[in-house]
Model the fold of this input.
Amino acid sequence: MNSASLARRSALSWLPLLFVLATAVAAWGQSETPKPAAPEVAAPPAPPPPVVRIPDRGDFRVVYERSKNPDYQGLQQIFKETQLLEETVRALNGTLAMPADVTVSLRECGASDAPYEPDKRRLSICYELVDALSDLFTAGASSEEDVQQAGTAVAGATLFIFFHEAGHALIRLDGLPIAGREEDAVDQLATVLLLASGREGEKAALDGASTFLAREKDAKSQAALARLAFWNAHALDPQRFTNIICWVYGKNPTDFQYLVEDGTLTPERAAQCPAEYGEMAKTWDGVLAPYLKAVPPPPPAQDPHHPGPLLPASPPTAGRRGSG
Done:
């Protein structure tokens, strides 16, 4: 295996760590959005109307398609061992009701893409795209630290792309009511879902967006990005990436103040970001409410004299590996 291949495989070392992020997405629906300060004296608010939840008739289902390319076979093995896709869809399936199944296929597509095909209800993560992202982000890496940073960027970009395409699936399949362009809407949905998963999600969204934004400013990288089918199909312009970075900052200004200090966000735009994120999260809370599975009630308190079994009836879902 040549040095370029070694660099690509090293950059993919992020995969074993990311099942934590995937399962954390299940926290969506329990996340908090910014709320305005309550007035000193106010009448009790009227109770909200009951949410009519849609019936759950489907799931995201992972499929691995065969490839004759040894490099892609290696990628498939990494995905199978880490269960990244399985953990991700398990979290989504446990959180969102679906009217029908959607296949999540890791496959050879003939192009570096990640399409959602409504007629087949299939979301593809193409081997060519993951490999191309690894090549793009490891180009110029001269140290192990550079390679690890590139791997983080690949991770963020890949996860953001997955959630972006899952957003298309949800909008097309569930008929989610959106305003404006669908591409802008799925950018928002992908970012909201990632940010709802906590610190790791914030990092994934920011790494993917900020790295792509940096690449947009480099002529050689621009040429490489132009060869990605996904890139051309989605017109991922710098303004959209700046929006994503703004939403990340808006959710957590304290931890991401450096984005203003290093000039990634202008002070003028940064001042608007908390309100932008708050409004966006509130909007998606309302849109997704009918599709969120009801949170189960807490278990009844145990009689101290009869505490019940020492072990649960089944192992917990979070972190559990499924079959490959």
Summary: The chain has a mean pLDDT of 75. Residues 144-174 form the longest helix (31 residues). The chain has 13 helices and four strands. The chain has one domain: 3-28+55-291.
